[in-house]
Amino acid sequence: MADLTGKVALITGGGTGIGKGIAERFHGMGMKVALAGLDQASGAANQYFGRNMGGYTAARDLAETLGEGAVAIEADVTDAAQVEAMTAATVETFGRLDVLVNGAGVITAKPIQELEEADWDSVLGVNAKGTFLTNRAAVAQMRAQGGGGCIVNISSIAGKLGVPFLTHYCASKWAMIGFSISLAKEVAKEGITVNCLCPGIVGTQMWTLLSKAFAQPGESEEVAYARSIETFIPQGVPQTEGDMADMTAFLVAAPHVTGQAFAVDGGASH
Ligand SMILES: NC(=O)c1ccc[n+]([C@@H]2O[C@H](COP(=O)([O-])OP(=O)(O)OC[C@H]3O[C@@H](n4cnc5c(N)ncnc54)[C@H](O)[C@@H]3O)[C@@H](O)[C@H]2O)c1
């Protein structure tokens, strides 16, 4: 396996959940990590319903805990200027950019007749447009360095399957895969790889929200969560942040693997 010591990774959504797990793994491998996050989203309709989502505060706390070789950056991935500034800040701090892990994502869960334009705009905005903006900025920087680099976009089991009440989220996650396969072919000769990681069910704050949304009348969130695992995951167990870090660590050390969408979902998709 390639030695990744000293390589520089920018991780959006790097302070919480799956992004945090990947950041801790990378840092433990001797990589330098820029952890991007957002506290207050400008769009009202996301999983946090306009509340402070604490992504930047979490990134700052994690960077402090990790110490040397870690920095937190506040940025909204739906804003082109902030994405450019986030990429520039990474390079300013660590001198270059070798890896982008695009983990920022939001979700709502609603039946089609209740789904509002604002749900569509915020979920497609963060998940799909955010992928476009962060990838565009990363490729520009990797090109400026003379080529080479690795991008991992965190799509989902919902980027490979249809899921009721998640029409807009599925659309955004399928979009990420189409985007990534296309970009992979576009930059292949420049030594830049682009892949997707497709997690199954990981018990992060995103699933706290989903369990609430999926709970049937009188059903607790814990029971709703267990029922979702039973329904969607053939192995019958949730996946972990560590599982996601395993696959991402493999991808950043695999120069000839590109244009793929890897599911880590206990057998749910193909
Ligand atoms: N948890 C799961 O089971 C699961 C399954 C499949 C895919 N995913 C995907 O994994 C990724 C990480 O999710 P998670 O489960 O760790 O939940 P999470 O809520 O902990 O992570 C999402 C992160 O995105 C950040 N974010 C949201 N909007 C942003 C914006 N506009 N700009 C910058 N950052 C923003 C949040 O602050 C948060 O840190 C998401 O893309 C999610 O869709 C999660």
Describe what you observe in this structure.
The protein has a seven-stranded parallel sheet with strand order 3-2-1-4-5-6-7, with helices on both faces. Helix content is 45%, strand content 14%. Helix 3 (80-94) runs parallel beside helix 4. The model has no long low-confidence stretch (mean pLDDT 95). It has helices spanning 17-28, 55-66, 80-94, 117-144, 167-187, 205-214, 221-232, 241-252; strands at 8-12, 32-37, 70-74, 99-102, 149-154, 192-199, 261-264. The longest helix has 28 residues, at 117-144. It contains eight helices and seven strands; from the N terminus they run E-H-E-H-E-H-E-H-E-H-E-H-H-H-E. It is of the alpha/beta class and 270 residues long. The protein has one domain (8-200, 241-264): NAD(P)-binding Rossmann-like Domain (Rossmann fold), CATH 3.40.50.720. Residues 12-13, 15-19, 37-38, 41, 53, 55, 76-78, 103-106, 126, 154, 156-157, 199, 201-202, 204-207 line the site of nicotinamide-adenine-dinucleotide.
